[in-house]
């Protein structure tokens, strides 16, 4: 079981995108962790306000969020107002959806597609940070982590294509670096980080799994375990950086 020695012994954690493949795996792992006091799970598939789970003694509370709606993100922030937070994980992201597919070349680029990916992958995390970073526990380490992607690395881009997704993740990585600088001034023990989960067997990666080398396709549970291990080892000096599932730093 992953532990978080640098965090509060009775942690309050938030997972955004809790109904997705990796989000569900994060939820299962954290619910089983005795260090967790309360776990707030948000997803587009949950309905209404925060609803305490029916199971007796559950640590989990669920609520609705639409990453394409600023008003919905604001409501999430209001529902958590005054709750001291130790760990926030944004496990959501958008690569494809119906006719929205990664661009193979410049001729496939459409403004509405790029705008939607920027909204979900970059703007929504920024607005969530605006709502939740003020809640991070003062005087003690806290972690704000967002799923990023290696394709967001500018220096590691050797294949081209996937314009909107690459741009949205590169912008996310810059957002995390900038957030880390401002956050350090008020919360010197806070850590802001991006996490590259590898290729996970999920709806997001399903159309692109054919070319994944044998052994490099992870279950959501494997990826969540790797990433929680990284979270548990981070220090404030590493804030603003992006780390892959194997602990290596993703270059800018």
Please characterize this protein's 3D structure.
- The chain has helices spanning 21-31, 70-79, 111-132, 163-186, 220-231; strands at 11-16, 36-43, 51-52, 60-64, 87-90, 142-147, 190-196, 199-200, 217-218, 242-244.
- The chain is an alpha/beta fold and 252 residues long.
- It has a single domain (11-244), classed as Rossmann fold (3-Layer(aba) Sandwich), CATH 3.40.50.
- Helix 3 (111-132) links the parallel strand 5 (87-90) and strand 6.
Topology:
Elements: E1 11-16, H1 21-31, E2 36-43, E3 51-52, E4 60-64, H2 70-79, E5 87-90, H3 111-132, E6 142-147, H4 163-186, E7 190-196, E8 199-200, E9 217-218, H5 220-231, E10 242-244
Parallel strand pairs: 1-2, 1-5, 2-4, 5-6, 6-7, 7-10, 8-9
Antiparallel strand pairs: 3-4
Helix pairs in contact: 1-5, 2-3, 3-4
The count of β-strands is: 10
- Multimeric status of the protein: single chain
What topology, given as strand order, has the largest sheet?
A: 3-4-2-1-5-6-7-10
| Cα-atom radius of gyration | 17 Å
Task: Profile the largest sheet.
Answer: 8 strands, mixed
Total count of domains: 1
| Helix percent band | 25-40%
Distance between the termini: 31 Å
CATH homologous superfamily heading:
NAD(P)-binding Rossmann-like Domain
Category from helices, strands and their pairing = alpha/beta
Shape: globular
Give the overall pLDDT as a whole number: 91
**Helix count, per DSSP?**
5
């Amino acid at each position: 079981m992953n532990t978080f020695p640098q965090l509060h012994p009775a942690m309050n954690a938030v997972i955004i995108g809790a109904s997705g493949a990796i989000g569900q795996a994060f939820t299962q792992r954290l619910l089983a962790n005795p260090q967790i006091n309360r776990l707030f799970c948000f997803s587009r598939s949950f309905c209404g306000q925060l609803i305490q789970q029916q199971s007796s003694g559950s640590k989990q509370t669920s609520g609705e969020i639409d990453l394409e709606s600023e008003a919905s993100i604001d409501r999430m922030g209001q529902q958590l107002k005054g709750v001291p937070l130790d760990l926030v994980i944004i496990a959501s992201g958008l690569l494809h959806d119906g006719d929205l597919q990664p661009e193979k070349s410049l001729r496939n680029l459409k403004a509405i597609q790029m705008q939607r990916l920027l909204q979900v992958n970059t703007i929504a995390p920024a607005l969530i940070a605006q709502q939740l970073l003020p809640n991070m526990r003062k005087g003690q380490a806290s972690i704000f982590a967002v799923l990023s992607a290696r394709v967001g690395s500018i220096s590691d881009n050797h294949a081209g294509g996937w314009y909107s997704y690459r741009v949205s993740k590169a912008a996310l990585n810059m957002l995390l670096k900038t957030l880390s600088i401002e956050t350090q001034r008020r919360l010197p023990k806070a850590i802001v980080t991006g996490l590259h989960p590898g290729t996970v067997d999920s709806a997001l990666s399903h159309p692109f799994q054919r070319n994944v080398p044998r052994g490099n396709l992870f279950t959501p549970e494997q990826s969540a375990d790797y990433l929680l291990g990284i979270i548990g080892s981070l220090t404030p000096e590493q804030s603003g950086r992006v780390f892959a599932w194997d602990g290596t730093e993703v270059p800018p």
